[in-house]
Structure formats: structure tokens, C-alpha cells
Amino acid sequence: MTTTTTTAADADPGTDARCGPGMSRRERIGHLLQHHGALMVLAVTVVVGALVFDSFATPQNAANIVVSSSFLAIVAIGMTFVIISGGVDLSVGSSFVLAGVLAAYGSRYGLLVALLLPLSVCGAIGLVQGLIVARTGMAPFIVTLAGLLGMRGLMLAVSDEGANTYLVQNDAFSALGQASFLGLTVPVWITLGLALLGGVLLQRTGFGQNVYAIGGSEEAAVLMGVPVTRVKVLVYLISGLLAGLAGALNAARLSSGVTILGAGMELDVIAAVVIGGTLLTGGSGGLIGTMAGVLLLGVIQSLINQIGVLTSSFQQVVSGAFLALVVVAQRILHRAQRLS
Amino acid sequence: MAELAAAPRVWGGRARLLAWLQEYGVYASVLALLLFNVVFTPHFLEVANFRTQLIQVAPVVITSLGMALVIGTEGIDLSVGAVMALASAMVVLYLGYGAPVAIVAALIAGAAAGAAGGALVAHVGVQPIVATLALLVGVRGVANVLVPQLTEFRNPTLITLGSRSVLGLPLVVIVAAVLTVLVAFLIKRTIFGRQLVAVGGNRAASRLSGLPVRRVLVTVYVISGLLAAVAGVLATSRLQASDPTSLGLLMELSAITAVVVGGTPLTGGRVRVLGTVMGALLIQLLQATLIKHNLPQSWTQMVQAVIILAAVYAARGRRA
């Protein structure tokens, strides 16, 4: 998993942002498909959905899709950072659940505790995972797998083996998940803010460029003087914090720390990021694609609900098939770019 | 990345300890846990207890064997739990034609899922983790669509398979043991085994020396799918019911843990069959020990996390 054939295009930090002159038409089309393919498919799906189903293109349904996608989106922002840096974070699902339980538990001590408790615990675990990955060179996949198990255990320990569902006992905190502003709930606005912030961080700062550099070629990044350890630790810290925030907001929305939702979420998040055009080999991708990937999963779910007779299991089939299609397309594009 | 961070180091006492741990750590841990239980756990030495432990661990052992082969090629198969569910769904669907047909259908479905993953990895060049992730999501979806809810059944052949014993040993355990011997033979004594290890150790060199790299990779994923299907059939037979939503859930994590704890490096090029079985046993024993001493499930998972980290850390020392 760690040996990656790095092409020059991958190694150049932030290549994806530029689609400059000197590229052949074929290369340009390849780039466009790689980085905005998800957005195009999303647009097509929405148009087709609107034409076929009367109740699809209503403001109410659009709001539903956006609201239910926002939690996945927040986690996916962190995951995008991790994957661009060449890693992967399997612990986000557990982190999400743990944060929900901790937030609901903490809400009896006030709004501040309800937010800070999950954020500090999930952030700390993200930090530790980052330190282990960066310092020992162990595969991110296995370190965060241990994190997944450890946090699931911690969640069970906090909630009396999952038997105890804490209720949110703080109106201000509940409002954070349920209140609406301009027709959309607060988590949606938080998602938008974080996506914007993340985009700026990734594309416009030295830190963002370092993330791309490490993912493109860690060896080259070391030689260029990139503080590899620090960047890696920060990336996993960001992922842990965002998963924690999403879990806390979800608890606020549901008014309770549900102990069973969110298991396996890491797979949806990775799927969304990959569908969005971020390569799991690292060094390439971006947040616009990730957001499109998240929305696309939400739209597919909504369309399947529209069809009615189909169960939600079909969504899994479609998501899986779609993910396979996307990675195959990416490989073909990748080869075409290398050949030209 | 592992190669990069692990700088060359002198083989001091610490490195030697780590190497020893990677090689024999799993056996030592199983032995230590057994001894602990013999001394401190009442009724541990009873036959019934051993039986229960072995029956419970059998599906994990079987899926772990396939996982060990895949990891030996520097891959990973996240789809094994979903394939178990698919196999279970097929058993229910085809039970009307008799148990043998149902079992064959389940095995074919498992092999087909494995072939799909193998083709993505070998022919398209998709990373194993993504290819099998797509399979995980899709295959469990298919299983759920085929059998939407918990379905119970009664079939004498499957009851025999799931619950009977021969010479005091449950059939399920015998199947697991036979498959272990087969996989060990495959690795140690066949050309395919040599090729598998070579492909995992150095794919470029294998290709240059004319090994059928793609065929080996596809075969490995097919075997993993097949073994997962066997585990699914056994689990379904034992329960006399199929529930594709929950069967085999998170099995991929248990299998990966067993393989890693058993000393098979994630970097490929080496497969430890007996170590994998011991890894599965270790986790099973650990769970049983904690439960018997009234420690909750949450502890098991946290201890498991520490064991995985320790195992991979020891393996890293060996690579250096």
C-alpha cells in the first residue's frame, strides 16, 4: 500500500489548481474529468432527477439533502487533507460516534463543555495517531484501524457498554444542531464555513502546499525541507477534530448521543473523497471535488427514496458500483495522461 | 513510507527483542493467556468451554487465511465481511434446490466477488484498499437486496454442517483445520505459493522474471472470496438463519488483526499461516478471558487496539 508510482504531475504540489498553457487538449480534458468529474456527474444527476421526478427538485428536498449530507461533509473535509497527504484515517467513524456520546454527556454541564469535551478527546486521539504515523513510519491504515477499535471501546466504556443513551440537556447546544438560519440548519452553515476555510488552507497557504508535497513524494518533500512530521501530525489532528465536531453537531441534532449510528461511516467518507477525484495515492485532489462527492452520495440516496419501491440497500449497490466506476475511470485517465 | 522512516539501525538488544516478538510473540501470548486462564479462570479446562471457543473462532480463522494470502501480495481485502453476508443470502435463496446447490451457489458468489476485486487490482491497477472498499459497500448492498430481512430456515444438511461433531470435534472446526492445512500446503509446497510470495516481495522483479503477476493476484483475491464464502456458509448453518445486514459485519477488521498479530508483514512477501491461526485464537482467548472475568466488551476492543499497534511496531523493527 505504501509503494506508489509517483509521476511528475503528482509530485508537483497543487498541480490540480493550475491547468495552464502548454498542455495538450487531451491532457486538459483528462485534468478536467479528474478534478471536476464528480461535479459534472452531480449536475447531470440533478438535472435528470428534476426532469424525471416531480418531487425531487423542490426546495424542501434540496434542503433535506444538504442538511443530511452536512455531517458527512464535515468529516470528509478532514479526510481530504489526510488522503492528499498520502495517508488514510479509518478512525473517523468511531470518532464521530464517540464525540456524539461525549457531547450528549457533557451537555449537562453547559454548552461549552458539550463542545469542548468531544473536540478535545477526538483531537487528542487524532494527534496521537498522527504522532505514531509520523514518528514510527507505521502504515496509517493500521494505526487508524487501531484507533477505530480503541475509540469504539472508549465509546462503549463511556456509555455503559452502549446501553446508556445520554440525552442532550442543554437548549443552547440542541439549537446548534436544529436551529435554522435562512432556511438551512446551523450545521450546513458550519459545513460551508469549514469547506471555505479548508479550501483556503489547502490552496493558499504554505501548509496546504506542504500537504500536497508530502502526498506527492515524501522523499522529495523531506529533501525540500518540508517539516514532514509536523504536517502529518496536523493533518490527523484536523481529521480528528472535524470528526469530533461532526459527531457533536449530530448529537445536538438528534438531542441524544446515539451509540450505533456512524459505525462504518469512514467508508462512506473515503468513498465520497475518492469519488470527488482525490487520489488515494496522495498528492492530488481538492475540497470542491470532495463536496461534490458528498452531495452526489446524498442525491443518489434521495433519488432512490423517490423511486420508492427500492429499499435503501440499493443505495449501497449504486454507491459501490459508482465508486468502482470512478476508480477505474481515474486509472484510465491517469494512464492516458502518462502516455501523452 | 515505512521504508523511508525506518532508518538503518544496528541490531542491538531492542531490535533483536522486536524481531523475536514478531516471530514468536503470538505463540508466547497465546501460551501466556492459556496459562493465566488455567490458573485463574474457573471451569476453563472443561471440554465444553474449549469447544465453544473453537466453534466461535472457526469463521474468523477461515477468513483470516484468505486475508493472509492477500496481505502476502502487499494487498488488503476489506470485502470479506460483505462476502460472508452475500454467501449467507445465496444459501437462503437457493435452499429450495437442496443444500448442496445452495452451498455451491454461495461459493460461486464469493469467488465471483473475489474475481471482481482481483480484476480491479490486477488488470486496472486500482489500489487494493479502494477496490475492495467499493466491493464492501456494493456486495453488502446486493446481499441486503437479495434477502431484505432476517430469514430463518430449517435444513437437516445445514444443521449437520453447523452443529454436528465427528469424533468429538465440531464439523465447523474440522473444516477450519483442513482449510488451514490446505493453505499452508499452498504456500509452502506449490509453485503458486512461491509466485504469491515473490509477487508480494517485489512485484516489478516478479514481472521482469516472467511470473504471471496478474493471474497470481486475481487468484489470490478469488481464494479470499471463496474462503469468506465458506465462513459465511458455516456461520449461516450454525445460526439456521440469514441476516445479511449484520452477518460478518466488521469481520475484515478481525481478519486483518489476526493476520497482523500473527506476524505477517503488511508490506507483503511473507505469509505466516500458523501465525494467522494463532492470531485469531489470541483475540478469541482475549475476549473470552475478559468476559469470564467480568470485564466488559469495551476493554476487549481497547486491548485489541494496543495489540495491533504492538504487533505492527514489532514488524517494523524487523523490516529495518
From TrEMBL, chain A:
<dbReference type="GO" id="GO:0022857">
    <property type="term" value="F:transmembrane transporter activity"/>
</dbReference>
<feature type="transmembrane region" description="Helical">
    <location>
        <begin position="33"/>
        <end position="53"/>
    </location>
</feature>
<feature type="transmembrane region" description="Helical">
    <location>
        <begin position="65"/>
        <end position="88"/>
    </location>
</feature>
<keyword id="KW-1003">Cell membrane</keyword>
<dbReference type="InterPro" id="IPR001851">
    <property type="entry name" value="ABC_transp_permease"/>
</dbReference>
<feature type="transmembrane region" description="Helical">
    <location>
        <begin position="141"/>
        <end position="159"/>
    </location>
</feature>
<feature type="transmembrane region" description="Helical">
    <location>
        <begin position="314"/>
        <end position="333"/>
    </location>
</feature>
<dbReference type="GO" id="GO:0005886">
    <property type="term" value="C:plasma membrane"/>
</dbReference>
<protein>
    <submittedName>
        <fullName>ATPase</fullName>
    </submittedName>
</protein>
<feature type="transmembrane region" description="Helical">
    <location>
        <begin position="108"/>
        <end position="134"/>
    </location>
</feature>
<feature type="compositionally biased region" description="Low complexity">
    <location>
        <begin position="1"/>
        <end position="17"/>
    </location>
</feature>
<dbReference type="Pfam" id="PF02653">
    <property type="entry name" value="BPD_transp_2"/>
</dbReference>
<keyword id="KW-1133">Transmembrane helix</keyword>
<keyword id="KW-0812">Transmembrane</keyword>
<feature type="transmembrane region" description="Helical">
    <location>
        <begin position="233"/>
        <end position="252"/>
    </location>
</feature>
<feature type="transmembrane region" description="Helical">
    <location>
        <begin position="179"/>
        <end position="202"/>
    </location>
</feature>
<keyword id="KW-0472">Membrane</keyword>
<feature type="transmembrane region" description="Helical">
    <location>
        <begin position="287"/>
        <end position="308"/>
    </location>
</feature>
<feature type="region of interest" description="Disordered">
    <location>
        <begin position="1"/>
        <end position="21"/>
    </location>
</feature>
UniProtKB/TrEMBL annotation, chain B:
<dbReference type="GO" id="GO:0005886">
    <property type="term" value="C:plasma membrane"/>
</dbReference>
<feature type="transmembrane region" description="Helical">
    <location>
        <begin position="167"/>
        <end position="187"/>
    </location>
</feature>
<feature type="transmembrane region" description="Helical">
    <location>
        <begin position="247"/>
        <end position="266"/>
    </location>
</feature>
<feature type="transmembrane region" description="Helical">
    <location>
        <begin position="216"/>
        <end position="235"/>
    </location>
</feature>
<keyword id="KW-1003">Cell membrane</keyword>
<keyword id="KW-1133">Transmembrane helix</keyword>
<dbReference type="Pfam" id="PF02653">
    <property type="entry name" value="BPD_transp_2"/>
</dbReference>
<dbReference type="InterPro" id="IPR001851">
    <property type="entry name" value="ABC_transp_permease"/>
</dbReference>
<feature type="transmembrane region" description="Helical">
    <location>
        <begin position="297"/>
        <end position="315"/>
    </location>
</feature>
<feature type="transmembrane region" description="Helical">
    <location>
        <begin position="50"/>
        <end position="71"/>
    </location>
</feature>
<protein>
    <submittedName>
        <fullName>ATPase</fullName>
    </submittedName>
</protein>
<feature type="transmembrane region" description="Helical">
    <location>
        <begin position="24"/>
        <end position="44"/>
    </location>
</feature>
<feature type="transmembrane region" description="Helical">
    <location>
        <begin position="129"/>
        <end position="147"/>
    </location>
</feature>
<keyword id="KW-0812">Transmembrane</keyword>
<dbReference type="GO" id="GO:0022857">
    <property type="term" value="F:transmembrane transporter activity"/>
</dbReference>
<keyword id="KW-0472">Membrane</keyword>
<feature type="transmembrane region" description="Helical">
    <location>
        <begin position="273"/>
        <end position="291"/>
    </location>
</feature>
